[in-house]
């Protein structure tokens, strides 16, 4: 059994959030569709959350790779199927440095005013020359 300290990102309610067998969908007579968890080994976290986390968090990806071998066979099968069904969605979008650079790029933007001909306007050129 994993301890709280080594579950990292996947610690959820004092247990491993990656644990659990595949859930199924059941169609009710009134037309609703409900998620039914395996009664013997219910999934702790839903597939959508796992996919989102793998795509957006380097820590989630690293902890997933570290914890996967220690999971029971049913959990490994569920997660393997999840990744095979969502190959593009489970790829990490960018590494952490690129992610942080992209955030900074959005926060630090210096607009350049352009004239009608597409060249920097005299105001923008004048401002730039005075600052230099």
Describe this structure in words.
This protein is mainly alpha-helical. It has one domain. It has six helices and four strands; from the N terminus they run αββββααααα. It has helices at 4-7, 47-56, 58-67, 73-85, 96-107, 122-131; strands spanning 11-12, 15-16, 24-27, 33-36. Strands 1-2 form a two-stranded antiparallel ribbon. The chain has a two-stranded antiparallel ribbon with strand order 3-4. Strand 1 (11-12) and strand 2 form a beta hairpin. It starts with a helix and ends with a helix. The mean pLDDT is 80.
Concise structural overview:
The chain has helices at 4-7, 47-56, 58-67, 73-85, 96-107, 122-131; strands spanning 11-12, 15-16, 24-27, 33-36. With 132 residues, the chain is mainly alpha-helical.
Topology:
Elements: H1 4-7, E1 11-12, E2 15-16, E3 24-27, E4 33-36, H2 47-56, H3 58-67, H4 73-85, H5 96-107, H6 122-131
Helix pairs in contact: 2-3
The secondary structure category is: mainly alpha
Domains, number: 1
Largest sheet, strands/sense/barrel: 2 strands, antiparallel
Number of strands: 4
User: Distance N terminus to C terminus?
Assistant: 63 Å
Bulk shape: elongated
Strand order across the largest sheet: 1-2
Helix fraction by DSSP (H/I, runs of at least 4)? 40-55%
Series of secondary-structure elements, N-terminal to C-terminal? HEEEEHHHHH
């Amino acid at each position: 059994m994993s301890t709280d300290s080594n579950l990292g990102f996947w610690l959820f309610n004092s247990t491993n959030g990656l644990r659990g067998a595949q859930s199924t969908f059941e169609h009710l007579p009134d037309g609703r569709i409900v998620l039914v968890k395996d009664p013997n080994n219910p999934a702790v976290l839903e597939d959508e959350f796992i996919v989102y986390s793998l795509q957006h968090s380097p820590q989630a990806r690293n902890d997933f790779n570290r914890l996967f071998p220690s999971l029971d066979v049913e959990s490994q099968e569920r997660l393997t199927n999840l990744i095979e069904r969502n190959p593009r969605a489970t790829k990490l979008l960018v590494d952490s440095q690129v992610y942080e650079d992209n955030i900074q790029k959005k926060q630090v933007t210096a607009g350049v005013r352009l004239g009608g001909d597409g060249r920097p306007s005299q105001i923008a050129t004048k401002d730039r020359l005075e600052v230099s």
